[in-house]
């Protein structure tokens, strides 16, 4: 092995392994870097490679270290770590081209392992560049004399030629349902809504501008203040934290008087939780999931891969008009003895409402629910909303901490600065204290429209919490107390509702137009990438193929088709490359002359390929004097037709006729 | 076929018995305006061939015997001071003839060799700043002893390329040798030969050679031969484009000698040993192989398309 290809190999491995440094144990990264450096030094100085026993010791120690670190040698983490360590060690016995080829294959395999961790477009582009480098190195191994540029050109051509094969494999390779092998939990994003809510939990989430899901409406999108993406419903309150309690999956919820159905499709990023998001109130869903009694959509398994589903919701509804006594009791329960001032306030409202039953529709109440609120309960709800609106409450991402046990009292009467979880939580407590069944709903509100891709992006910063109260004759009605304090949050977005000084995710506030456009463009591109490249699962594959006319798609059929099409593509390439071997169609004179030769060959006098017509004629004449006249005549006709100055149709026809008449 | 050419060949065959192929090759080389290199042992009739051709074609003949102390001026000529006129007067060297026999060209030093070869290539001589054209037609026959003899300067490949053809005389067959041994002294016969062609006729024939038709099919064949020499692994390097042009020119002349107006693959095959054998170097162990056999292999290896 000469030096340049060794350096090229070192660079290739370094590039392909570099992204792994992020999650490898630091000592492995350091050991590998040291090994590569050592090899580079040995190459530079021309010193001999280390002895076998030393390598054995390092290998055993390394494997032992990995075993201690991960308690296994298998699985994604330990496997990738071991692979990279052994690859670096392989350099220590790189002596000939065969070893170099092993390293090339290892490098290609490490390219794949990178996709265990990230499947984004930048990763794919980087890996493509790395692959180009690897192939260039490979070309280098077999053609030392080729300069770098032509080498790169050869590698690029090879990769380009691989595109048809790649496409065939991508479209036709049978997909398995779900990930091919089980990946550990941390392979998936875990940021997102939790099924618990305590002061501060949502405001922390609001600082992330990660995408939660993307939505395409099949028709006119609803108004912004109707875009409530329903997530976990929280019933239980322990004085500080809201939790869902026991969810009834078996009892179906009831709908009545539904109107304004809306169809849309959601592409949900994996969040490692069981719930899916849908607009209030969800009715139908294209994937298998339960619609619980409190209108949550729950899957059996946590979501570990991006999921796309179609859904239908009703913007106008009466939900659970007849609520069971047990649920009513659940929605009224409060931790006993806590927050006395809030209880007292609520009871005062209640007494006032009962004393003066003069219900009037309030403009503020139309915002949260479906209808103007009527009756005593409604009066209380209106009073609470008016209280939030009138009193000096502030909407802020940085609320002061509420350390005491009566956190609701502290918030309502002292700090009065809070985020949506504070308002939703305290509102529900107030309602329950006034003996109105209420619960907290968490989810997302709003979304950013991407006019390039024609879809809405809902980010973690759109996380929201609101309340639902049960009113007899109306069922569960959505009340958003945040809307009473900061209407801009619901009508526009978070940034509009907060003072300019508040810390926000990068770009959530109005950034320069070109930067926003760039971000929306990028999101549109990655959305397509997600939908069509990463999201190309067995369902999409089957749908695509049946649109192409393939019926009853099964994986066996897919495999057969794939083999067939791959064979076709390879054959096409082979034909293209070997095209100069395929003989050009000889002209009429030549084919006719070859007929003469065939006739004579049958008679035992084959013409040698290099034999000219005259020589052949003489040879034939010598062997078969009876043919002498004919064959000499034919040869001279042939020569004058093929090599002569003039070539008229008449003599060509005469020649053909003479050949037909020629019978040796 | 041109009757006078027939006469030329007939007359030459009377003197050089049993070598019709060599005579035709030499004639083809001359008609294609090339120069000829004859490589063989002394005494096989190289000089006689040259003399006979010169006589029969009616060309002025000069002979230069190359020796190791030959100087360029001995070939090209010198200017000598004339006492009468007080001027230098140019005395042309033996190169100023229509047919020049450069005998044993590999015995001279490279300097003398290159003087001859430059004149051959450019068909003119520049001495002391004056360019003097050489007569037309101008034809050089150089003879060369096989290079393994002592005291020779073998011509380098680039110089060999200046010769359109290289041929070998070979020993005569027994019958021809009998006639040679029993017959009259060849020198006497040569002295008595009458020219069969005028200079102008020869020039006209050279013109006609260029007009011999070459069909696309034949060009395919020539290119197949060239490609084979470049792609096959048995040669150090393939034939150059100049060699391809030479091959075509020689094949045209051969076709004309055969009385045809178009070139056939057989013509190419006939001249290929003369044109290619000194331009192809066999590789490795085959280096000792006879170069004519090498060319025969080449012919057999390339199919006529």
Task: Note down, in words, how this protein is organized.
The complex is a heterodimer of chains A (664) and B (305). Chain A is α+β, with helices and mostly antiparallel strands and 664 residues long. Chain A has three domains: 3-146, no CATH class; 201-513, no CATH class; 588-661, no CATH class. Helices cover 49% and strands 14% of the residues of chain A. In chain A, strands 8-11-5-1-16-15 form a six-stranded antiparallel sheet. Mean pLDDT of chain A is 83; it is low at 180-189 and 361-373. Chain B is α/β, with parallel strands linked by helices and 305 residues long. Chain B has two domains: 3-200, P-loop containing nucleotide triphosphate hydrolases (Rossmann fold, 3-Layer(aba) Sandwich), CATH 3.40.50.300; 212-301, Magnesium chelatase subunit I, C-Terminal domain (Helicase, Ruva Protein, domain 3), CATH 1.10.8. Helix content of chain B is 47%, strand content 14%. Chain B is built from 13 helices and nine strands. In chain B, the strands form three sheets. A five-stranded parallel sheet of chain B has the order 2-5-8-1-9. A two-stranded antiparallel ribbon of chain B has the order 3-4. In chain B, strand 3 (77-82) and strand 4 (87-92) form a beta hairpin. The longest helix of chain B is centred in the last third of the chain and has 17 residues, at 241-257. Chain B starts with a helix and ends with a helix. The chains are: A alpha+beta (664), B alpha/beta (305). The A-B interface holds A 586-587, 590, 608-615, 639-640, 642-645 and B 213, 215, 217-218, 261-266, 269, 299-305.
Number of domains of chain B: 2
How many helix segments of chain A? 23
Biggest interface found: A-B, 17 and 18 residues
By DSSP (H or I, 4+ residues per run), the number of helices of chain B equals: 13
CATH H-level superfamily of the largest domain in chain B: P-loop containing nucleotide triphosphate hydrolases
Largest sheet of chain B: 5 strands, parallel
Q: Roughly how much helix do the residues of chain B carry, as a percent range?
A: 40-55%
Helix content of chain A: 40-55%
Biggest sheet: strand arrangement of chain A: 8-11-5-1-16-15
Fill in the CATH topology of the largest domain in chain B.
Rossmann fold
Distance between the termini of chain A: 63 Å
Question: Numbering strands along the chain, what is their spatial order in the largest sheet of chain B?
Answer: 2-5-8-1-9
Estimate the global geometry of chain B from the Cα principal axes: globular
CATH class of the largest domain in chain B: Alpha Beta
Category by helix and strand content of chain A: alpha+beta
Oligomer: heterodimer
Total of domains of chain A: 3
Approximately how much beta-strand content do the residues of chain B carry?
5-15%
